[in-house]
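Check the record.
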Amino acid sequence: MRIVIQRVSSASVEIEGRVTARIGPGLMILLGIEEEDLQDDILWLCRKTAKLRIFDDHEGVMNLSVTDSKGEILVISQFTLHASTKKGSRPSYIRAARPENAIPLYESFVKCMAEETLTEVKTGVFGAMMQVSLVNNGPVTILIDSKNKE
């Protein structure tokens, strides 16, 4: 399971010309699920993300978590995070989980993030064509892979 976390001033997702979710300051998380992912991956990523100190404290030092800063969270499913570009010019998505496996894990990740941060987590729509807008604050962008725990 891979996530791209972006600290944002604001973010929104639009589907078929209608804004379906919008947040103010907080985290926009792109979530990529692969076939081998399990609940352990979700729990590890949620705990790591909830505690990640990437928000400024009163001295301007990145010392606060999303919970500490009372930030909002937007999670967007993105199977392309598991693209393999090893051969040729067309990415392969063979490692990305099929919807029947990915949807329950996606929903579980969203629920887990809400529980870990004690905040409502807004989402896109799994599998929909979405237009995602964001204002990256910093910029701060972090990639975390549950299979490569650095």
Remarks:
- The chain has two helices and eight strands.
- Residues 7 and 49 are 11 Å apart (CA to CA).
- The beta strands are 2-15, 18-23, 26-32, 55-56, 62-64, 72-77, 121-123, 131-145.
- The first strand starts at residue 2 and ends at 15.
